[in-house]
């Protein structure tokens, strides 16, 4: 029952950064065909208007050469191929500015909303698109209605602008009949170019309405339920029980490694029951004593057992044991403020070791070890 409730939760939450990143990896970003169309139309018409004179000169040259051929040239295949090649080259040179502008617009248009994206997943076939029920659902979706309204609006706006343009240019269009042929042709082309730019610019209104809708629709598709967010957190951060088990294993590994250092220690200082710390000091290789193991309660008991089994000297000094336990990390030197106290303990241990080897008298256990007030943990 719980699973059914989770699956039926409404997707009311905004997409998480991880969900947005995954959607982008799958090729799902907000795109506006209307914005791309507007950029292409405006760029093409403006480029054609700007380069029209240059293109006209090139095409006039091609027509002039093509229309003034001598009769003998028509029967010369080599000359005809040369003329055709020249005509094509001149035409391509004339059209080059327009083609260059359209190529830039074709690149900039799609990435103007959603940014640059390359995803092979977007090209993969999706079998769910072949589902007729899903197809019918898409046909009667909000997006389909919006697309229909956009198409109607686009036709209406362009038609309205076209009528307004005809009314505004009525005098000039009628005046073309009274102009000389060559000026009339240039004037007519200029009017056509201006009209094309204005009609292309009219699609800006459609793009302005489409872009917010596409952003809203994309965000809606990526919405998540609270259960989705919880599941994502578990996938990315790990399930709590698994993380707890990992931490437990890490503690056990660290504890085993620490316990393996106890037999190499020079002394274990105890509380005597609650705390135990193991110190190692080699004057030839170390500047200061180093803490190799520490623990409280059960771990402290284990340290004492290992120390006793390996004949590591155990010294009871509650204040010093608590201070080292609370101020020193594993594999770190003891604080400078504890040097004197630790030195007293190590001196006793080293003297006791020499005594057992038949060198010197048996030392007395250190007593009255002083701990600086700022390092006391009573």
What does this protein look like?
By secondary structure, this protein is mostly helical. It has three domains: 14-27 and 132-237, no CATH class; 33-112; 253-357, secretion proteins EscU (name from scop, 3-Layer(aba) Sandwich). Helices cover 64% and strands 6% of the residues. The protein has 15 helices and four strands. A four-stranded mixed sheet has the order 3-2-1-4, sandwiched between helices. A hairpin with a 4-residue loop joins β1 and β2 (275-280). The longest helix is centred in the first third of the chain and has 35 residues, at 33-67. It starts with a helix and ends in a 22-residue tail after the last helix. It is found in: Cell membrane. Its main location: membrane.
- What's the rounded overall pLDDT mean? 82
How is the largest sheet built, in terms of strand order?
3-2-1-4
Number of structurally distinct domains: 3
Number of strands: 4
Helix coverage percent:
55-70%
Rounded radius of gyration (Å): 44 Å
Q: In terms of structural class, how would the helical and strand content be classed? A: mainly alpha
Question: Residue ranges: pLDDT <50 for 5 or more in a row?
Answer: 1-8
What is the H/E string?
HHHHHHHHHHHHEEEHEHH
Give the count of helical stretches.
15
Q: Give the overall shape, derived from the CA principal axes.
A: elongated
Strand content: 5-15%
Largest sheet: 4 strands, mixed
The N- to C-terminal Cα distance equals: 55 Å
InterPro entries: FlhB (IPR006136), T3SS_substrate_exporter (IPR006135), T3SS_substrate_exporter_C (IPR029025)
Main location: membrane
Protein name: Flagellar biosynthetic protein FlhB
Pfam families: Bac_export_2
């Amino acid at each position: 029952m719980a699973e059914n409730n989770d699956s039926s939760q409404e997707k009311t939450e905004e997409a998480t950064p991880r969900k947005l990143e995954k959607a982008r990896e799958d090729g799902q970003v907000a795109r506006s065909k209307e914005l791309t169309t507007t950029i292409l139309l405006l760029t093409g018409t403006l480029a054609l208007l700007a380069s029209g004179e240059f293109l006209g000169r090139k095409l006039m040259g091609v027509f002039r050469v093509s229309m003034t051929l001598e009769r003998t040239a028509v029967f010369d295949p080599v000359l005809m191929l040369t003329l055709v090649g020249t005509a094509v080259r001149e035409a391509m040179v004339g059209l080059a500015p327009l083609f260059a502008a359209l190529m830039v617009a074709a690149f900039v248009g799609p990435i103007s909303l959603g940014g640059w994206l390359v995803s092979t997943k977007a090209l993969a076939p999706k079998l769910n698109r072949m589902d007729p029920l899903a197809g019918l659902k898409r046909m009667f979706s909000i997006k389909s209605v919006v697309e229909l309204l956009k198409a109607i609006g686009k036709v209406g706006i362009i038609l309205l602008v076209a009528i307004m343009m005809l009314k505004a240019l009525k005098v000039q269009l009628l005046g073309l009949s009274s102009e000389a042929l060559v000026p009339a042709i240039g004037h007519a082309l200029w009017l056509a170019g201006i009209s094309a730019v204005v009609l292309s610019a009219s699609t800006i209104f459609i793009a302005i309405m489409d872009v917010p809708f596409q952003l809203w629709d994309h965000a809606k598709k990526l919405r998540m339920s609270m259960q989705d967010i919880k599941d994502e957190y578990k996938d990315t951060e790990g399930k709590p029980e698994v993380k707890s088990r990992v931490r437990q294993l890490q503690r056990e590994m660290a504890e085993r490694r620490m316990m393996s250092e106890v037999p190499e220690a020079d002394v274990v200082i105890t509380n005597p029951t609650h705390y135990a710390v193991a110190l190692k000091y080699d004057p030839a290789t170390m500047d200061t004593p180093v803490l190799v193991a520490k623990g409280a309660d059960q771990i402290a008991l284990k340290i004492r057992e290992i120390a006793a089994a390996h004949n590591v000297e155990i010294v009871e000094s509650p204040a010093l044991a608590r201070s080292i336990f609370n101020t020193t990390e594993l594999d770190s030197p003891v604080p400078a403020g504890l040097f004197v106290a630790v030195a007293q303990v190590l001196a006793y241990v080293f003297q006791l070791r020499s005594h057992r080897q038949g060198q010197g008298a048996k030392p007395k256990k250190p007593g009255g070890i002083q701990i600086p007030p700022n390092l006391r943990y009573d």
